[in-house]
Amino acid sequence: MIIKSIDEGVEISGVEKFSLEETFECGQCFRWNKVDDKYYGVAFNRSLCVYYMSENIIMEGTTPEEVKSIWIKYFDLDRNYIIIREELSRKDDFLRQACNFCPGIRILNQDPWETLCSFIISQNNNIPRIKGIISRLCKKFGDKIGNDIFTFPSAKTLSKLMEDDLKEIRSGFRAGYIIDAAKKISCGEIDLEKIGGMSLNDAREKLMSIKGVGPKVSECTLLYGFHKLEAFPMDVWMKRIMQELFKGKSTSFFGKYAGIAQQHLFHYTRMMNKQSN
DNA sequence: GACCAGGTATTGC
DNA sequence: GCAATACATGGT
Prior knowledge:
It is a single chain. By secondary structure, the chain is of the alpha+beta class. Helix content is about 45%, strand content about 15%. The strands form 2 sheets. It has a 6-stranded antiparallel β-sheet with strand order 1-2-6-5-4-3, covered by helices on one side. Strands 7-8 form a two-stranded antiparallel sheet. Helix 3 runs antiparallel to helix 4, helix 4 (about 95-100) crosses helix 13 (about 260-275) and helix 10 crosses helix 11. The structure holds a DNA duplex.
């Protein structure tokens, strides 16, 4: 992997088995949008335009320094997913199919607060609408950092709101949950810095003390926001997959990269299902 | 119009 | 404890 400055921004060359489409469209994040084969998004208060061709990632509107300090980690580019997929593929035949179907997925290192808040919004909701709510949340309460580009609002900012203030983002019954989370984070009752260092079970328990955060949302936060790769979000899709294809097995069957296995299984199954509609 | 969407809190047994 | 139900909103 070589990072070099080019006219448009930065080029990272020699990146094998990588797909922005699979990474951004597999349900782990909600702030990236495709326009003419390039993805535009915001993370960690920076906006980015990114695309991938012939084993090169091109990042526009950034610098090599920022790439090294933020985006390499964000896209988890230092990890060898090829080896991990081989390892997972040996465990089970269907899992191997899933790994072969989307061999370019990466588990993003997203901001913990943004991830927590986003998955609170995700409950009993569909992905297009989740994206809409988050987009309106950022537009109304985030900082403007470009032409119609906004940061994700901080917990502190949202902690000062009343439920009615969230009326216009149309988050529905989740408004109270968002504010409860924001309050618990900003007052220090829950310290997100510490959660990363806790045991998985302690972290789960702590996150679930927030109203509107149950097993699924806490697990998503740990996998996508804290990069706990053994976390395994169990939504309706995964429950069905476990029931039908991994009967009698627990998630520990997938080992320390269970979260990566989960992401491939989830995406594969959903895509297959979509085609038959 | 009923039904569903990467669930969770609340209620009733 | 565990099964049912309500919860806002928008798409199909």
